[in-house]
Amino acid sequence: MGARSRRLPDTTSEVRDDLKSSAHQPIALRIPDAARLVGLSRSTLYEEMDRGALAYVKVGARRLVLREDLVEFLRRRRVVAGK
Question: With pLDDT > 70 as the criterion, what percentage of the chain qualifies?
Fold first, then answer.
């Protein structure tokens, strides 16, 4: 039997819902995993971290993004139609 692929969330609200319902998920994500979760490139996330727009945790040479920081990063960029 093949591995089951998980559908990635399409919207910010789906990301938030996914994070809320994922108590068993890690609290921090590697950059490739965070990029897949939100649909951005790894390069974009690294650029946002370097600009100070996305908080991260440094452990050795590895950068990790807390799930809550990823959601907050997206919230700050939310655009409401008509505004």
Answer: 71
Residue 70 lies in a domain: yes
Which CATH number do you get for residue 48? 1.10.1660
42 by Cβ neighbours in 10 Å (0-12 / 13-18 / 19+) ranks as middle
**Residue 3 is assigned to a structural domain of this protein:** no
Model-level pTM greater than 0.85? no
* pLDDT tens digit sequence for 43-80: 999 999 999 999 999 999 999 999 999 999 999 998 88
Q: How many domains are contained in the chain?
A: 1
Query: Burial level of 26, CB count in 10 A (0-12/13-18/19+)?
Result: exposed
CA 76 to CA 55: how far, in whole Å?
13
